[in-house]
Amino acid sequence: MEHPRIIQGGMGVGVSDWRLARAVALEGEMGVVSGTALDILLTRRLQQGDPGGHMRRGLAAFPDQEVAQRILARYYREEGTPDFHRFENPPMITVEPSREVEELLVAANFVEVYLAKEGHSGAVGVNFLEKIQLPNPAAIYGVMLAGVDYVLMGAGIPLEIPGLLDAYARGEAGSITLALEGAEKGETLLRHFDPARVLSSPPAQLKRPAFLSIVSSNVLAQTMVSRASGKVDGIIVEDHTAGGHNAPPRGPLHLTDQGEPVYGPKDQVDTLRMTKMDVPFWMAGSCSDENSLERSEKAGAWGIQVGTLFAFCRESGFLPELKKKFLQAVEAGKMRVFTHPGASPTGYPIKMALMEGTIAEEALFAQRKRVCNLGLLRHLYKKEDGVIGYRCPAESPELFIRKGGDPETPQDARCLCNALMAAVGAAMEYAGGYLEKPLLVPGEYLDSLRVLIRKIGLDYTAADVIRFLDSSRGEETCSS
Ligand SMILES: Cc1cc2nc3c(=O)[nH]c(=O)nc-3n(C[C@H](O)[C@H](O)[C@H](O)COP(=O)(O)O)c2cc1C
Questions:
Q1: How far is Cα 9 from Cα 33, in angstroms, rounded to an integer?
Q2: To 10 degrees, what angle do helices 462-469 and 447-456 make?
Q3: H helix runs in 368-425, sequence order
Q4: Cα of 352 to ligand 1 centre, how many Å?
Q5: pLDDT at 475 over 60
Q6: Are strands 150-154 and 210-215 parallel, antiparallel or unpaired?
Q7: Rounded to whole angstroms, how far apart are CA atoms 480 and 469?
Q8: SS3 state at 363
Q9: Maximum CA pair distance of the chain?
């Protein structure tokens, strides 16, 4: 299969939205939409009046119009504007969600991929996180219904997903096993999805997208290829300098004086070993110089996956004022990206741009009332009476600890659900007037971004990024 050499990495929530993915795919490279929280984003875009009518156009193409109409009736506000923020939230996803929740998940994921693929035949992928399990079965069905070409997945070990893609491709229902804290040995909790619950006449077959697994070690690459429930078509090797979440360092956690995790030689992936696996692979994390593509190809890789450069281009979902502020600081050499070991409820280290007005600022973080109202990063646990409970380290620490959560965990945990929504213009405003603050999670390698903006300026496009990555051959090295 002739895969694209450059992958625009999936960036949630809503940073790599359909516009960015489409712009990249139109240039002949792989555009990847973030599949995280698309259900919530769709409801918010509709409540904000759906400027341009894109969400409604996507819904009009959904194969079951009764489902589409129910969603519009509940969430679309004709009078809405982009500065509306008093959103009605859809019900949180649980182990056994209502039909309404599943309809919204399938339709929202369909819409994003449908729009990214509209009017061209370029490659469009979608990125999901293994850590956010509950929505995945319905969401993956939705993207396949829209004909997605690639499913990319990291943040965990998604062994069951390739087989799930196979089941859906055969027109069958599918299940995944959920992580359950406090489960008995041998006890499994399944999340089952049956297309017939959402569609009046589900297609008998669907195209099986290629599956790319995002890993941070040779062992994990090997595990995915040898033990997954279906074919792994490629591997993305992501370095700890990459934007978003990072794998924790191997071995015991040591922190620098500033409090960042210390990574060492054990965290380096051996590309020679990768080449022996006979599976195409892409390098990610600081592979965004003008010669990174050539360097990665020389190391035996198929190409590169790039995030940060695309995250701040014109077509990305970040609010324009946040892009500008960030890029001005990068240009001036004043932007610092911090790898926080405890800010994410997932337990994985996460990158944070230390930027004013975001919840990277301790004072703003402390001002926020710790409520959990979107719930994507909740952990499932088994209560003493056997009932399944839900807890998030970013909710009120008292509540988290009362639910049996580890008292050490919650101190620094930020509500990423709300902060990442805020960064793309979908911040929630509460009755008292409090508006959720954003968070930016770029990669730590900013040199290539500085070169790019020196060449093009602060308002550059996805096509500029691709020309930059695929043009002249310079001296800098890709961090791999
Ligand atoms: C703002 C931002 C959000 C990201 N979100 C995700 C995500 O939701 N899922 C994921 O697998 N990777 C995510 N990433 C990682 C990218 O897909 C990509 O692998 C990474 O950014 C590559 O490193 P670079 O930033 O040095 O180019 C994110 C990166 C950025 C910059």
A1: 8
A2: 110
A3: 397-402, 416-423
A4: 12
A5: no
A6: parallel
A7: 16
A8: helix
A9: 64
Say what percent of the chain tops pLDDT 70. Answer: 98
Q: What is the CATH number of domain 6-318+452-469?
A: 3.20.20
Q: To test the ligand 1 pocket, which listed residue (11, 214, 351) has its Cβ within 8 A of the most ligand atoms?
A: 11
Give ligand 1 pocket residues (Cβ under 6 A).
9-12, 15, 34, 36, 127, 129, 154, 214, 238, 241-244, 284-286, 288, 305-308, 311, 441-443, 445
DSSP symbol at 403 = T
Dist. CA 142–CA 138, nearest whole Å:
6
Contact 378, 290 (CB under 8 A): no
Residue among 220, 240, 308 to mutate when testing ligand 1 (max atoms within 8 A of CB): 308
Q: Which CA distances in Å does 362 have to 31, 205, 357, 359, 398?
A: 35, 51, 10, 7, 19
Nearest CA to ligand 1 atom 6: 11
| pLDDT reading at 139 higher than 60 | yes
Residue with tokens 């301790």: 362
Cα 30 to Cα 305, 330, 422: the distances in Å are 9, 26, 26
Query: How far is residue 376's CA from residue 393's CA, in Å, rounded to a whole number?
Result: 12
Say if residues 469 and 303 touch (Cβ distance below 8 Å): no
User: Separation of 429 CA from ligand 1 center, angstroms?
Assistant: 27
- The domain segmentation of the chain, as residue ranges, is 6-318+452-469
CA–CA dist 333, 328 (Å, integer): 9
Are 114 and 146 in contact by the 8 Å Cβ rule? The answer is: yes
| Residue 80 contacts residue 48 (beta carbons within 8 Å) | yes
Instruction: Note the pLDDT tens digit of each residue in 164-208.
Output: 999 999 999 999 999 999 999 999 999 999 999 999 999 999 999
DSSP secondary structure code for residue 251 in this structure? S
Averaged pLDDT for residues 366-385: 96
Is the confidence at residue 408, as pLDDT, over 90?
no
The residue nearest atom 4 of ligand 1, judged by CA position, is 11
